[in-house]
Amino acid sequence: MAPVLVVEDDVAVRTILRTLLEDTGYSVQEVGDGEQALALLRGAPQPLVVLLDLVLRANDARTLTDPRLRAFTTGTPLASSSPGMLLRHSQADPVLARHGYIAVTALPQTQLAPGLRDLLDATCFGLVVKPFDIDDILDVVERVQQHLAAR
């Protein structure tokens, strides 16, 4: 079973996800920002299931999901360790591409910038909207687990 990496800047949400997943039998690592996530993803000895919060305050990633900012259609510069850049790099970097990504956000998909929706469709196995349903989280994590095991 692939370990799960929770990338979430909200400590309470991170703790809830870790506890839920560990109680279900998963091995879980957690980080609070994109730089830590990138380091773990690059150094992981095996593929990980990654629950990736799209808005990490430490990276000023609000540009990723605010439809008024249109980060992916207007060329707004993003931090190299922001969730959006991490997903973009995962398309070309085989070390990052071997992981299975699940996007987590407080915004419904209809409110995401079109460029971000396209990026999520290309790189993620699912989108979980906060407040999330426990069964939805477990279902998508299991789906990614099965995909990684079949590789």
Low-pLDDT sequence parts: 59-78
> Helix and strand succession?
EHEHEHHHHEHEH
Query: How large is the share of residues in beta strands?
Result: 15-25%
Radius of gyration: 14 Å
Number of domains: 1
Query: By helix and strand content, what is the structural category?
Result: alpha/beta
Q: pLDDT average, as an integer? A: 84
Helix content: 40-55%
The name CATH uses for the topology is Rossmann fold
Largest sheet: 5 strands, parallel
Distance between the termini: 13 Å
What are the main properties of this structure?
alpha/beta; Rossmann fold; single chain; 8 helices; 151 residues
Write structural notes for this entry.
It is a single chain. With 151 residues, this protein is of the alpha/beta class. Helix content is 48%, strand content 17%. It has 8 helices and 5 strands, in the order E-H-E-H-E-H-H-H-H-E-H-E-H. A 5-stranded parallel β-sheet has the order 2-1-3-4-5. Helix 5 crosses helix 7.
